[in-house]
Design a protein that fits this description.
The chain is α/β, with parallel strands linked by helices. It folds into 2 domains: 149 residues, Aspartate Aminotransferase, domain 1; 243 residues, Type I PLP-dependent aspartate aminotransferase-like (Major domain) (Aspartate Aminotransferase, domain 2, 3-Layer(aba) Sandwich). It contains 13 helices and 13 strands. The strands form 3 sheets. It has an 8-stranded mixed sheet with strand order 2-9-8-7-6-3-4-5, with helices on both faces. The longest helix has 26 residues. The structure holds pyridoxal-5'-phosphate. The site of pyridoxal-5'-phosphate (PLP) has 14 residues, from helix 5.
């Protein structure tokens, strides 16, 4: 018997381990993985970039770097974020080892055991796992197709006898719900938070992956247009636009928050890999990122269309969903009396995996939904996978109604 710390008792980290296993099962058709498609990675371009690096930069790849990040990459990012309208002049960028590390650093910076963190319900399971590790008290707020439920948020804040430290949201192409906040909802959210002292974490891992150019404006960050003086920490990632293997993310925060965050990062891993930062920076500076993003948007839009068509073709009529405008996910709603865990047990037997709804509930309960990722399913498996899933669902629904008779 080991005397493990309380921190290891995060329920959601077990879910994540399972998720990683499900995503990589060779013989399964997997709608589980929230990761980019292996066949789309810019392998050739990165080969060329490394080979063409001057020797001094190659050597630097192997070296430690500043905790805040490889300065040329910070500069490149500043330009990118400025173009998106983010206030880089009044804030500072900290490069992190994946944006999950940014979430972890922010939590460490502000949250003591028992402090309250508000999240959406459902919410990104990786963040839930971090919040649990720091022994926060997590309160989930429901969302609808336009974003977080404003009335529920107001009621929650009013009902708590302690002020929440943080509110964590993913407004653009939500994981798992696939939605994007309406511009109106983004403003309403800022209005509610104004004057409360609750810090908003705006997780923006997916905003570059919109499907239609004319809908790009919807991805505008709340930190761009914050007339309400809400403290917003903006986080971003290279994982979905270059590759999670780079483990590159960042946060944009006020100088004071940045400074403490840098100290925490110093103790965590000293710096993010110089190797990856240099390659990513060259990729940006050689003007390869924008064309690559255009390519990705088209690819993922096609994959989404294919999944949407197969769902329309096969799904029982009781199953509903919103067609996403970007990102990786479709979030199916089951009839109320059906649990996605029950569907999962049967679909695994038939060679199809996805992620159950309860995985994304802060208290691992609500289970009337399931997440399908269209990002990493081989195109030739998509239709077959949905057909199998639909047949499994019909069978589970029928058995359930027989039980009720
Ligand atoms: C909403 C959201 N935020 C953050 C991350 C983590 O990304 P990273 O690989 O940068 O740590 C993910 C990854 O799935 C995500 O879905």
């Amino acid at each position: 018997m080991y005397a493990f710390s309380n921190a290891v008792n995060s329920m959601h980290s077990e879910d994540i381990k399972l998720l990683m296993k499900q995503s990589s099962g060779k013989s399964m058709i997997s709608f589980a993985g929230g990761m980019p498609n292996n066949d789309l990675f810019p392998v050739v371009e990165i080969d060329e970039i490394y080979n063409a690096l001057p020797n001094d930069l190659k050597k630097l790849c192997f070296q430690y770097g500043p905790t805040s990040g490889f300065p040329p990459l910070v500069k490149s990012l500043e330009k990118i974020l400025l173009k998106k309208g983010l206030p880089v002049d009044k804030n500072k960028i900290l490069i992190t080892t994946g944006s999950l590390q940014a979430i972890s650093i922010i939590t460490q910076e502000f949250v003591n055991q028992g402090d309250i963190i508000l999240t959406e319900n459902p919410s990104f399971v990786g963040a839930l796992s971090v919040f649990e590790t720091y022994q926060a008290e997590i309160h989930g707020i429901p969302i609808d197709k336009d974003g977080i439920d404003i009335d529920a948020l107001k009621q929650k804040i009013a009902s708590l006898d302690k002020k929440p430290k943080l509110l964590y949201v993913t407004p653009n192409y939500h994981n798992p719900a696939g939605i994007i906040y309406s511009p109106k909802r983004k403003i309403e959210l800022l209005e509610v938070l104004s004057g409360t002292g609750i810090i908003l974490i705006e997780d923006d891992a997916y905003s570059d992956l919109y499907f239609k150019e004319e809908e790009k404006y919807l991805t505008k960050s709340m930190k761009c247009c914050n007339d309400f003086d809400v403290e917003i920490i903006y986080t971003g990632s290279f994982s979905k636009i270059l590759g999670p293997g780079f483990r590159l993310g960042y946060m944009l925060a006020s100088p004071e928050i940045f400074e403490k965050a840098e100290t925490i990062k110093q103790a965590l891993d000293a710096c993010t890999s110089n190797f990856m930062q240099i390659l990513a920076n060259e990729f940006i500076n050689k003007n390869k990122l924008q064309p690559y993003l255009e390519f990705l948007r088209k690819e993922y839009a096609e994959r989404k269309d294919l999944l949407q068509k197969s769902l329309e073709k096969y799904m029982p009529k009781e199953v509903t969903w919103n067609e996403p405008k970007g990102g990786f996910y479709i979030w199916l709603k089951l009839p109320n009396h059906i649990k996605s865990t029950d569907i999962f047990k049967e679909s695994v037997k038939n060679g199809v995996v996805f992620v159950t709804g309860r995985t994304f509930d802060p208290v691992s309960k609500k289970d009337d939904r399931l997440r399908l990722s269209f990002a990493n399913v081989p195109l030739e498996d998509m239709d077959k996978g949905v057909k199998i899933l639909a047949e499994v669902m019909k069978e589970v629904f029928e058995n359930r109604s027989k039980l009720k008779l």
